[in-house]
Design a protein that fits this description.
Number of strands: 3
CATH architecture of the largest domain: Up-down Bundle
Strand content: under 5%
Low-confidence stretches: none
Structural class: mainly alpha
Oligomer: single chain
Strand order of the largest sheet: 1-3-2
Radius of gyration: 19 Å
Shape: elongated
CATH superfamily of the largest domain: GntR ligand-binding domain-like
Largest sheet: 3 strands, antiparallel
Order of helices and strands: HEHHEEHHHHHHH
Number of helices: 10
Mean pLDDT: 89
């Protein structure tokens, strides 16, 4: 039985390795060994072994005898699947948010949209990316479904490296901010049908832009 301390350490190792894979710091096809990772992270091999097993279950690595864990990461096909799922589920979340959103959540959405527009004028890519995530997370929370919020949060996390590439492509941040404003206005009006339609369209536009952007990068 894994002790509480070891379980906590395994979770930290898992989180760090998952983030490194999703952000492209470990490349597709790269072999990760328990020994090398334990030395790099300053931990024993036990939490590393557990973390790699979890990553294998998620399909982010493949465990191969005598090679270790080979990075699979998020493939182009995975990316398209994730965005298509997001189109349906985020549209649903926005529709539900239009019916359930609180005044505080409305305020948070408005402030996030305004800050995004400010940082776009400043060409501050890091803040733009953070606020884009915050905008979507606020809608997930406002939909009132813990299960839907968790599913969408996980999907969003899995594509964060690609989102960074997309948001820094010419004109995308500005168009995304305009689409956020339209979604925001529909939610505040309580127009669930329009909120659903606009959000699905927003994610579809993001996918189209994403596929174009990654053609010129080495991230996939």
């Amino acid at each position: 039985m894994i002790s509480k301390g070891t379980a906590s350490l395994e979770a930290k190792v898992y989180s760090e390795l998952q983030d490194a894979i999703l952000m492209g710091r470990f490349k597709k096809g790269e072999a990760l060994t328990e020994l090398a990772l334990s030395e790099k992270l300053g931990v024993s091999r036990t939490p590393v072994r557990g973390a790699l097993s979890r990553l294998s279950e998620e399909g982010l690595v493949e465990l191969i005898p005598n090679r270790g864990a080979v990075v699979i990461g998020i493939t182009r096909e995975d990316l398209v699947d994730i965005y298509r799922i997001r189109m349906r589920l985020e549209g649903l979340a926005s529709a539900m948010a239009a019916e359930k959103i609180t005044n505080q959540e409305k305020k948070e959405l408005i402030e996030t949209a305004e800050l995004s527009e400010f940082y776009i004028m400043k060409h501050d890519g890091e803040h733009i990316k953070e606020l884009d995530t915050q905008f979507h997370q606020t809608i997930y929370k406002a939909c009132g479904s813990r299960m839907l919020e968790k599913v969408l949060t996980d999907l969003h996390r899995n594509i964060k490296a690609y989102r960074k590439v997309s948001l820094t492509s010419p004109g995308r941040a500005e168009r995304s901010a305009e689409e956020h404003r339209e979604i925001l206005n529909a939610i505040i009006r309580g127009d669930s049908g329009e909120a659903d339609r606009l959000t699905s369209l927003h994610v579809e536009h993001a996918l189209t832009n994403m596929l174009t952007a990654i053609e010129n990068t080495s991230i996939d």
